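Recap slide: Anti-sigma factor antagonist, sequence and predicted structure.
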Amino acid sequence: MMLFDPARGPAFAVSCTEHGDAVVVHLSGELDLRSTPVLRDHLRPLWERPGTRALIIDMSGLDFCDSTGLGELLSTMKRSQRAGMRFMLSELSDVVARVLSITGLRNAFEIHAGTAEALRRVSSP
């Protein structure tokens, strides 16, 4: 799913890949007020699907994340945990890593350097 700005190209894109009992959600562009509803709508079916043990958000393609985006990540983590899923962030872009550090939210999330590492952790406690 994608938001598109004709003047600038894709403003936000989200896609999912399944890896056994884990789902990796790939984000690119800008996670902000306009794009958070797109992300939420894309994730909603995952929370209702049985058998998914982990939700991994690959953030390597994000160029921007505002306070609305951070709030949506926190809400997504809580919804995932209520659904019995482990929630992880992977491959933080420099921009997102800096925003998480500045806001003090870096420790609120389980963060992995790479998506492959996060997938290995799905089977560990």
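Residues 1-8 have pLDDT under 50 and may be disordered.
Helices lie at 36-48, 67-82, 94-103, 115-122.
(End of recap.)
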